[in-house]
Amino acid sequence: MAAPIPLLAVRGSDGTSLLRGPPSCQKLASFASASRCMTFSRDGSLLGWCNNDSVSVVTTSDLLPLKNFDLQKTVMLQFSPLNGVLATWRPYTKSPAAAHGEANLHLWDLKSGQQLKSFYQKQQTSWCPSWLDDEKVAVRGVSNELHFYENNNFDVIVKKLHLKNVTDFALSPGSSPPKVAVYVPGAKGAPSFVRLYQYPHLEGATAARANKSFFKADRVTMQWNHAASAVLVTASTDVDKTGASYYGEQTLHYLAVTGETALVQLEKKGPIYDVAWSPGSAHFCVVYGFMPAKATVFNLKCDPVFDFGTGPRNACYYSPQGHLLVLAGFGNLRGQMEVWDVKKFRQVSKPQSPDSTHFSWCPDGEHVVTATCSPRLRVSNGYQVWHYTGSLLLRWEAAVGAELWEVCWQPFAPETFPEKPIRYQAPPSQLGSTEAPPSQAYRPPALRHLPAAPRAKLHEEEPPQNLREEGGDKTQSKAALRNQRKREARRAARQESGAEPEPDLVPVSSGGQSAASGGDSETDKKIKNLRKKLKAVEELKEQQASGKVLQKNQLEKIQKEAQLLKELQDLELGH
């Protein structure tokens, strides 16, 4: 049986439309009304959208209407995992007839169309109840409590978890038994904390499966892995009191249901831009550090597995099958993306999609969509569908005066699309490739026939490093890796400028004798002295390349480099 072709839903000022996904990308239907929101059901069988007058639900197989609810001013809707319940939300308002406000969160039975329950929900954040995949348990947050319901019976609160000032929670994915992570911010000198509980064991001092406290947190983001065995907590402050970062300060914490907790140690200082679990739940990727940012894959022991080096990136996205990873730089960056083979840690392609505000993987793990949406950007609105190798399949641009608001793929069950072998060659496309051309510095025409001079770099670029131990060899220390990168950068600069390659200098041992010395103490001293001078010359050259203005005597030392190298060579040959 052939795998299905996913749909791509597009919402904008011209209405909501559906496209039959890649590689054909054919338009199927268009809904005339400009909807305020749209969403697919968890299994992709239903599509719902709402406008100022009503909420509509259609089946994606034949696009026939299923239900229509006369609900005005609805701005949010969501299906329960098994499509038993439709949740709708509109802004909380008061009126003369209802001085205490009107219920604005409604739960509807999709089969009968009857209203199951209504709640008062003032804030839009965390407005919808959270369900287990089997819908046996649902959780809703209220003031200082979490309320647990069973079998979609929202008239009876089966369990309550009372925690003073609890502000956020995250229910684990999967089926029973459910686990929930809760966050309580610190107050009056007390630290903030995140705790893990397993339903229905919520009472008592020892009920928490894991507990992690920290002081620097104004808000948190909690992410469960797909196996529901661990959660990552990104704690953020609005202001960095040290003044080092405009973005505040972030820390990353790890909590496992077994009770293990850890602070994830990040090598480079700076913000944490993005964190993503792999679909296999055994690794997670973190993008962090002042630009150019680093990206590192960690295992469940919070040990680094692979370091992608530095680059212009602030987001990471695993494919649904987990075999590919995209590192991207969106927002105020140029839209450069790196597609990596996760198993081999080999780069597949390097596409570019400037001005993108949205990225998402197609469920088939072969294609992605990038889009420029309003209100984030109100110009150049449009979207692109491309293959992960960089081959562009579809480009659509909004008409003058029109806006694109949202694009999303039709979801499917994880086993619907099996993992395919990774391709390193882009398939043919009439629109060409989105591969970014190599950047080159401008050179005046009069100088283009001369060898290129080494360019000074504003930042030290770090290449990818495999941090796993292979063949029993220990990984290098951080200082050794930095020195190795500096030597490689100097060697590449000399080759680019057409200069003679520098000789590999033999390090001097702690005993004062070089590894190549034969016992002549006077000659050894001269060799050692020449190497010190050459080392000083290299340091001066690095300072000059970074833009520092050197003194006259320092420039004279650099000019003597060739003479020092010749003297050193003569001494080593005659030694």
3D structure, described in words:
This protein has 575 residues and is mainly beta. Helix content is 11%, strand content 34%. It contains four helices and 37 strands. The chain has a five-stranded antiparallel sheet with strand order 24-25-26-27-37, with no helix packed on it. Strands 3-2-1-36 form a four-stranded antiparallel sheet, with no helix packed on it. Helix 2 (521-545) packs antiparallel against helix 4. The relative contact order is 0.07.
Question: In summary, what is this structure?
Answer:
By secondary structure, the protein is mainly beta.
What is the quaternary state of this protein? single chain
Query: How are the strands of the largest sheet arranged?
Result: 24-25-26-27-37
Structural class: mainly beta
Characterize the main sheet: 5 strands, antiparallel
Report the total helices.
4
The count of DSSP E runs of length 2 or more, i.e. the number of strands, is: 37
Flag low-confidence runs.
469-475, 500-519
Shape: globular
Terminal-residue CA separation: 76 Å
Strand residue content = 25-35%
What's the gyration radius in Å?
30 Å
Global mean pLDDT: 82
Helix fraction bin: 10-25%
Layout of strands and helices, then pairs:
Blueprint: E1 7-12, E2 15-20, E3 26-31, E4 37-40, E5 46-50, E6 55-59, E7 65-69, E8 76-79, E9 85-89, E10 105-109, E11 115-119, E12 130-131, E13 137-142, E14 145-150, E15 159-162, E16 168-171, E17 179-184, E18 192-198, E19 210-214, E20 219-224, E21 230-237, E22 249-256, E23 261-263, E24 272-277, E25 283-288, E26 293-299, E27 304-311, E28 315-318, E29 324-328, E30 337-341, E31 346-349, E32 358-361, E33 367-372, E34 382-387, E35 392-397, E36 404-409, E37 465-466, H1 478-497, H2 521-545, H3 552-559, H4 561-573
Antiparallel strand pairs: 1-2, 1-36, 2-3, 4-5, 5-6, 6-7, 8-9, 9-10, 10-11, 12-13, 13-14, 14-15, 16-17, 17-18, 18-19, 20-21, 21-22, 22-23, 24-25, 25-26, 26-27, 27-37, 28-29, 29-30, 30-31, 32-33, 33-34, 34-35
